[in-house]
Amino acid sequence: MTEEYQPKVILITGGAGFIASHVVIHFVKHYPQCIIINVDKLDYCSSLKSLEGIQDAPNYKFYIADITDPHTMQKIFEIEHVDTVLHFAAQTHVDNSFGNSFQFTHNNIYGTH
């Protein structure tokens, strides 16, 4: 018999970005039995304003961290006992991909790895 998967601690990367902030808010409000961990480095496209109203929710935690830093990410996974990841973090502005293509690629590819 297979046990049904039930997430308990969901880590969402890029949670202060436009799309992911809506996902974070939805999960915090509709899944109170889950702990929602938001990891964002608060880059140029992030906005904490979009997360107003949930920052004090008992099932919500926020970390300012860079997903390309494996030591910090490992520490978060160990401390929080993360069992599920929703990965939204990325640099998205096309102009940046031309102006600093190495950093753009490093963030989007290495950060996913």
TrEMBL record:
Protein's name in the database: dTDP-D-glucose 4,6-dehydratase, putative
User: One matching Pfam family, short form?
Assistant: GDP_Man_Dehyd
Q: Which residues form a coiled coil?
A: none
Classification via InterPro entries? NAD(P)-bd_dom (IPR016040), NAD(P)-bd_dom_sf (IPR036291)
Q: Which organism is it from?
A: Entamoeba histolytica HM-1:IMSS-A
- The source's superkingdom equals Eukaryota
Domain (NAD(P)-binding): residue spans on this chain = 11-113
Concerning PANTHER family, the annotation shows: DTDP-D-GLUCOSE 4,6-DEHYDRATASE-RELATED (PTHR43000)
Q: What is the lineage of its organism?
A: Eukaryota, Amoebozoa, Evosea, Archamoebae, Mastigamoebida
